[in-house]
Amino acid sequence: MEKVIIDGFNLSAEQVLAVARAPHARVELAASSRAALKESRDYIESTWMHDEAPMMYSFNTGVGLLKDTRVKVEHIELFQTQLIKAHSAGMGEPFSEEVSRATMLLRANAFASNYSAPRVAVVDRLLAFINARIHPVMPQKGSVGASGDLAPLSYLAAAIAGFDEAEVMYDGRRMSAPEAIAKAGIDPVKFDLKAKDASALINGCTASLAVAVLAAHDARTLLSDACLSLGLTLEAMRAEMAAFDPRIQKARPHAGQIKTAAIVRKLLKGSTRTTHEARSVQLPDELRRTDIPYTARIQDVYSLRCAPQVYGPVFDALDYIDNIVDKEINSATDNPLIFGKDGGGFEIISGGNFHGQYLAQAMDLLAMAVTDLGSICERRVARLIDPTLSWGLPRNLMSGVRGVNTGYPVVQCSLSSLVMENRTLCMPGSVDSIPSKGNSEDHVSNSTWCARKAATVVENTRYIVGVEMLLAAQALSMTESLLPGFHLGQGTQAAYGEIRRQIPACLDGDRWFHNDIQTAYSFIASGSVRQAVVHAIGEFAEG
Questions:
Q1: Mode of pairing for the β-strands spanning 173-176 and 167-170
Q2: What are the pLDDT digits (tens) for 219-254?
Q3: Which residues share a beta bridge with 167?
Q4: Beta-bridge partners for 168
Q5: Which residue ranges form the domains of the chain, and what is each CATH number?
Q6: What is the largest CA-CA distance in the chain?
Q7: Cα angle value 59/64/65 (rounded, 5°)
């Protein structure tokens, strides 16, 4: 995607991702939006920029409890500077550069709808930063998600204006905003903000939204990968496939449940490892009576059998979350907003679109859904290393001399630590509100924290799903010679082949598992295993 044109109404999550993660992508303002912004701004300049104009919040008044204090025209430019300085109260490590890019794009798109009334030059300045790959350094902590993300966005505004105190990332280095602006050849280095420019830049839950867009996308691809890790584990444990019968799903017709079962059937199509004949083979570590004939396995454990009923709600939650995020991408979250009047001219209306509760609740749901996904994956990993729970897979999936070598139990233990961390991060942030600013903001959303912790849960769960792929592949490699003639499904074979292309089976004793874990993480981050499966069988998790 080489060019994105914004108009405030039609920006997609895919375009946000492209700009955030492909720094060569360029962004332009639609001609229609440019004309509309100029029209409203011309009206403001010609009608309201005098000391007898009606008092309009943040145009010609202070903010918060100072909303009834008029700011004289002679002080309006100074007010922009002082407003940014007063809100530069962020703390902690900065957001990533991709979040910084997404935030600038989303703020510019909100302005393009012509509800916020900044000057066109402000939008052009944001786009110039994006296109020059200048990324404001914004601390992650300090926002309560109402009135929007005031603290982090103040750092963005300071960078846009060229404050000496503002820092940016440019060409791989952290430097002052003026230095980067000069190096990039953007003119002027110091950019004067006019009436409403500063409050428009900082008022909106845009940092929360930037994190949410990225986290929701990553959760979606992670869920596809978790279907692959599930499929590989089903193969490794010679699972009983009746639980994925479409008739079972039709009897409880949730869309996500039906979809999950269909994905599993597609991935394992043609598998003979998941048949009664394969299950009838007794593995060396399998506890089974030999004095009576083998009887068919009936009903696998929940972490295998109930996957459609656990993955399904995650699919459905992501559909809900995507709907919220898509609406937020093309929403005006400033205050006040400007609207054209039927008879000509414009009027200002104060409201609460800056409040991030939609995002906060959606991100709390994302954290809970992905945590449960990681939890069931970790339980399957625990089974893979226990022969009493895996129908005879080698203990610890260990190779080499017993006692000298340990295998993978500590790897599983590390996954359990991530599951516990994720569960802690599931404590809802959207119900945690502390009044601020003299109680004028007596209910806040906490959307930034909700988005940040959801993103952390997704990141943690990438490791969990990647390691399930790794250990399921290890189990398949270790039992390959014990189950001759039984082959994987077409989709699971493609996944297994790609894993083995990147990581050889551990068949000669323990090795430095850290490297394998990082490669397993890259399965998810790069999508390499998923892409190999799509190449083999086509899209398997779409629609």
A1: antiparallel
A2: 999 999 999 999 999 999 999 999 999 999 999 999
A3: 176
A4: 136, 175
A5: 3-204 (1.10.275.10), 213-434+443-537 (1.20.200.10)
A6: 99
A7: 115
Map residue 513 onto helix, strand or coil. helix
Return the H-helix or E-strand segment holding 201: helix 197-202
Q: What values do phi and psi take at 339, rounded to 5?
A: -135, 140
Q: How many whole angstroms from its chain centre is CA 1?
A: 20
The DSSP code for 469 is H
**CA nearest to 199, candidates 136, 259, 116:** 116
Q: Is 392 left (phi over 0), alpha (psi -120 to 50) or beta?
A: left
**Cα 267 to Cα 491: distance, rounded to the nearest angstrom:** 4
The 10s digit of each residue's pLDDT in 428-473 is 999 998 888 777 777 899 999 999 999 999 999 999 999 999 999 9
Report helix, strand or coil for 514.
helix
What is the C-alpha separation between 127 and 110, in angstroms, rounded? 13
Q: Which of 162, 104, 109 is nearest to 133 (CA)?
A: 104
Report the distance separating Cα 358 and Cα 366, nearest Å: 12
Distance CA 478, CA 399 (A): 8
DSSP letter assigned to residue 460: H
pLDDT at 149: 95
Token look-up 């602006």 returns: 181
Distance CA 543, CA 536 (A): 18
Tokens of 165: 């105190």
Residues with catalytic roles:
57
Find out whether 345 and 117 touch, Cβ atoms under 8 Å: no
State pTM to two decimals: 0.96
Q: Provide DSSP, 433-444.
A: ---BTTTTB---
- Nearest residue to 104 (alpha-carbon basis) of 201, 186, 14: 201
CA 481 to CA 97: how far, in whole Å?
48
Amino acid at residue number 215: A
Residues 178 and 164 sit within 8 Å (Cβ to Cβ):
yes
Number of helices (H), then strands (E), belonging to the chain: the values are 20, 9
